[in-house]
Amino acid sequence: MMGSRNHGISIWAGRYHRHHEAAFVCMLMALALPGIARSQEQSQLVDTGVILSAKLVERSADLNRMIGVTPPFWMPSSEDIARLEGQLKPYLEGVGTPKAKVIAAKLGRYKRQYLGYTDAGKKRIFVNSFCHWKEDWFWRDSVIIVKDGGTCFFRVHYDLSSSQFEQLEINGDA
């Protein structure tokens, strides 16, 4: 794999190996900057992944365009994530696609990134999920955007007020 990291954007390109070789391009939007204070300004690790802080999300205008999140940004609480997680598997099982059912069956193997944003005055959470990660990867402080890779990568938006999921996107196979 080759990669570069520069104050703001990290780009990774490489090959994804599973049953067949599938090439994909992974783009990391680096969000962390030195000297970030604790509290709402620092991301929080949870069992299923990481809640990215509002300050980290605000610092990347490119991210907004890529994944369709809009300000004002906010940091979901661990309680918000627990409620979302309690509904994620049943939601995936109820979606009428075989790929969603594959993901639901293996959901515990995925790591997730949670970003709080606002759309038309409603608080929403963008959930970015992936099945392969390394503890030392940038996934804890950077949003991982991957093209291809199949069911290993999916994204979904969650409306906090209605407790509804929307816009499920599952990557295609290369």
Structure description:
The chain has one domain. It is of the alpha+beta class and 174 residues long. It is globular. Helix 3 (78-94) crosses helix 4. It has a six-stranded mixed β-sheet, covered by helices on one side. The chain has helices at residues 54-58, 61-67, 78-94, 98-105; strands at 2-6, 9-17, 21-30, 44-46, 49-51, 111-119, 122-130, 142-147, 153-159, 164-170. The two termini are 17 Å apart.
What is the strand and helix layout of this fold?
Layout: E1 2-6, E2 9-17, E3 21-30, E4 44-46, E5 49-51, H1 54-58, H2 61-67, H3 78-94, H4 98-105, E6 111-119, E7 122-130, E8 142-147, E9 153-159, E10 164-170
Parallel strand pairs: 5-6
Antiparallel strand pairs: 1-2, 2-3, 3-8, 4-5, 6-7, 7-9, 9-10
Helix pairs in contact: 3-4
Q: Strand-and-helix sequence, N→C?
A: EEEEEHHHHEEEEE
Question: What is the straight-line distance between the termini?
Answer: 17 Å
Please, how many helices? 4
In total, how many beta strands? 10
Mean pLDDT: 77
